[in-house]
Amino acid sequence: MHFSKRGDSVLPSGSKESESIRVLLVEADPVYSRELRSLIEEGSSGQCEVYETTGVEPALTLLLEQKFDVLLLDLSLPDSEGLDTLSRAKGATASVPVVALTNDENEEQAVDVLRLGAQEHLLKSQLDARSLARNLRHAVERHQLISQLRDSRVREHYLATHDALTNLPNRFHFQNQLTRSIAYANRHDRQLAVLFLDLDGFKTINDTLGHANGDALLAEVAARLARVVRRSDMVARLGGDEFVVMIQDVTDDRAAERAAETVLDALARAYQLAGQDYWLTTSIGIAMFPRDGEDAETLLRSADMALYQAKREGRNNVQFYRPAMNAQARQRLSIENRIRTALENEEFRLYYQPKVEILSGRIVGTEALIRWRDPERGIVPPADFIPIAEETGLIVPIGAWALETACAQTKKWQEAGFPSLRVAVNLSPYQVCDRSLRDTVVKALWNSSLAPGSLELEITESALMRNENVAVEVLGELKTIGIRVSLDDFGTGFSSLSYLKRFPVDTVKIDRSFIEDITVDSDDRVIVDAILSIADKLQLISVAEGVETPEQLDLLRVGGCDQVQGYLYSPPVPADHLGDLLGRPQLLTDPEKPDED
Questions:
Q1: Would you state the CATH architecture of domain 171-322?
Q2: pLDDT tens, position by position, 454-485
């Protein structure tokens, strides 16, 4: 093998060594090789470094060992001839542009040479120093431009089909791949499963720790999912904290369930965020092909319905799609749309249940309870629409309306001769963790001119458990302006006593489940007595819910309970009904119970 380098080439004044072009010349004739080298150096003013070899095989070896900018290739060589020479060179390296040299003026061959990927086709008989150097330079520039355009198209395609944060396929790419996989499964009589995932409580993490930590969490979730699925399966991010997994060639439901359980386990491990450990659970819905859908859109919709059922079942579980979920989903969508309309049409109402001081028998406060009077269905129970309002975020405007209305109505009662009357308004878990809650409360107080001490916010332990740190911060801000806080359903959670210590609570409400059988169940009496004792020692107001009989009232009086509410005195009633009750000097224990409607 003949190989030489012209080491004495000098670049023009002001040129940089990095601007020179490294040329690999493949020419068997040493005389012509020297002539070509001279032409190149003359035409490039020394800006080309010329390396020489005599055949295709040694050229391919050099191309693998060193970096060259352009290959100047004679198509007639001892070890290869014609287009085969070009094919072998292009097959070995696609990153180096090729300028082909021939003695043949055959136009058909020239077209074939360019079609096979050469940047230029030059006739030896027509070469001069200037044109040869220019063609080499242009070959390099065109090759770079084409590479950049190709890389740009590949990048554009990648961005169009992948999620920028997690690098997982996006919804568009996933649906296309799912369609192809369904076609394959259909041809070969196979099953496949679609797992729809949603992170429980991700919004709280995102809102509390900021979007940067939220993004880091999503990226880690994506990495864990990618590690636990098979190479034949596919993981995608649909948006937000929603992910989907396609499991190909599953044998039965149990195999799909095992895959889902593996995912649950992988995502249940602690996440390191902002220097601390955080844990999240995951809800998963599963749809099977062909049973639950024969196309990508239907399968995804079925898996999404199953996911919603998993959320309703308490989260952190797996649910398979069932046909009955279709009707439930349609009903849920209908209610969601009607909630939006109800807000616009002012269909919501507040009912008020009195809180009665046991010792005096007088009404000292009320609890505002929301009702929905639907023009078609009549009164809609809160359990039928509050969970949907929470999931869709509609609970925020509904809650703001309830605060405004309750504060305004209470101010009217105070001006009518009941200045010490307080009103309690329930907060959902979503509201408690909403940092804008303080502004909402302040606005309601300002618009109504109600004193802060006349408003009590009722929260449940489940609301506090969603995000204790945010709840402490939000409730602390409200306490500083004089708002009272009541812990509702006390005794039904896991850590009530710790909440009494950590949170700024003024009132504890004993859950009706302990009051219902207090006259016949000694265990319930012991629990109620214990709660009353704790409230007394911590100087908290105690309120018993669900009081319906004089016997229950007597036991609570003996135990030292401060206030009661329940059907013994009055069910929740409209504001005008409560106005009548407020005028009584002492509320009777057997009043006529007004109709809630």
A1: 2-Layer Sandwich (3.30)
A2: 999 998 876 666 666 677 778 888 889 999 99
